[in-house]
Amino acid sequence: MTAIDTPSPNGYSRAGHGSTYSEQAILGENAPRQQRAGKPLPFNDERHLAAHQFLVDEAYLLDAQHYEQWLDTLTEDIHYIMPVKVTTALGAGFDTSPGMAHFDENKDSLSRRVARFRTEHAWTEDPPSRLRHYVTNVRTFATDDADHLVVESAELLFRSRGDVNESALVSCGREDLLRNDGGWKLARRTISIDESVLRMQNLAVFL
Q1: Over residues 96-103, mean pLDDT
Q2: Each residue of 165-192: pLDDT tens digit?
Q3: Fold of the domain built from segment(s) 21-193
Q4: What is the pLDDT of residue 12?
Q5: C-beta separation of 22 from 68 below 8 A
Q6: CA distance 174 to 182
Q7: How many CB atoms lie within 10 A of CB 166?
Q8: What is the pairing mode between strands 96-105 and 168-180?
Q9: Name one GO molecular function term (predicted).
């Protein structure tokens, strides 16, 4: 293999650019690179409490589908990615499909998705879904930059639409980077889905 087509350890590959999903993703070239440093912060640490409140407040906005307000909680250089999960043998060294993602988004693409919800062409969300985002297992880590925190969480999304279709559940883990910019904002989100085959009809929602 050449340096260009050598897959990364995490399985998501784009011309060998770096070791994280954001570095390798098409829309992640300008994403912030801060990484966790040290052990998780104590649960009574003010930074952890602030990060936890951010996630709870965000879940409310997504449940209520206040997407324009949600966009205001994102930084301008946000990268939002959900690699495609695959089933591999023990010891394969990766569990995502190289170069593939359900979401690979920046602020512009997320804003366009939100704008489309307000048009007559948003058939997947007209009538809108009934949503409930359950967020738990929150752990917060400091970084080398005092204005950034890495936050891990587990999320379960319940989604129901219409009167006939069966409801759907999506379970995932998330690693977020929060930035203190006059208030905490989401600067990066990597979503690790817990299924290789999604049972939801579409992904016209946010995790």
Answers
A1: 72
A2: 788 899 999 999 999 988 999 999 999 9
A3: Nuclear Transport Factor 2; Chain: A, (3.10.450)
A4: 45
A5: no
A6: 24
A7: 9
A8: unpaired
A9: 3-phenylpropionate dioxygenase activity
pLDDT of 16 higher than 60: no
Contact 204, 125 (CB under 8 A): yes
Distance CA 7, CA 97 (A): 10
pTM score: 0.85
Higher-confidence residue of 8 and 166: namely 166
Lowest mean pLDDT among 6-20, 22-36, 46-60, 154-168: 6-20
* Cα 73 to the center of its chain, rounded Å: 14
Q: Which two tokens stand for residue 30?
A: 């300008």
Whole-number pLDDT of residue 20? 76
Q: Which two tokens stand for residue 77?
A: 């250089």
Nearest to 206 by CA among 34, 24, 71: 71
Instruction: Specify the pairing of strand 74-85 against strand 184-193.
Output: parallel
- What's the length of the chain? 207
Query: Is residue 48 packed enough to be buried (19+ CB in 10 Å), middle (13-18) or exposed (0-12)?
Result: buried
